[in-house]
Amino acid sequence: METRRTFVRGLGLAAGVALAGCSSGGGSDSGDDGDSGSGGDASDGGETESSDGGSGSEWTETSTVEMTDELAYEPKKIQVESGTTVTFENVGSIGHTVTAYEDKIPDGADYFASGGFDSLQAAKDGYSNGQEGNIPKGESYEVTLETTGTYEYYCIPHEMNGMVGTIKVV
């Protein structure tokens, strides 16, 4: 009986160590912590690591984002210089949108959404009334970002599937 208790106690300790290792995993993004002036990065870290493995936790320097049939923006996190035009290409067979979260773009930045909408509510309404803003397969959407900071965006019909992305403008 004593051996069994020792074994179970050992499992509990091992689980605690494993959980402690997981909880410090969010902190391993220390390169991002230094420049996370916005509150968006803190919530981004855990979600990105769990849903996308290691690749989602790094910033990719590119101005092209692919929208896929796997209901994902690839890469999920990009970094560009101010004044860069970012191109979203639909490489899949189903339609997607690019819709900025109004409260998760830098202060003073222009709002953006495929379909040319000037607010999040207008983009949602447009999509519900005839799929306005939908980017069909083989087509693309471009936006030029001037204001430095972090921009978070999503696909209206696939947000619940985790189709979200982040752009850091430096």
Automatic annotation (TrEMBL):
A GO-annotated cellular component: membrane
Keyword line: Copper, Electron transport, Membrane, Metal-binding, Transport
Residue ranges annotated for the Blue (type 1) copper domain, each copy included: 65-169
GO molecular function: copper ion binding; electron transfer activity
PROSITE patterns in alphabetical order: COPPER_BLUE (PS00196), PROKAR_LIPOPROTEIN (PS51257), TAT (PS51318)
Main location per the UniProt record: membrane
Transmembrane spans: none
Location in the cell: Membrane
Region annotation Disordered: where it falls in the sequence: 22-76
Claim: Membrane is one of the keywords in the record: yes
Pfam families reported for this sequence: Copper-bind
PANTHER family: PLASTOCYANIN MAJOR ISOFORM, CHLOROPLASTIC-RELATED
Protein name: Copper-binding protein
Organism: Haloarcula marismortui ATCC 33800
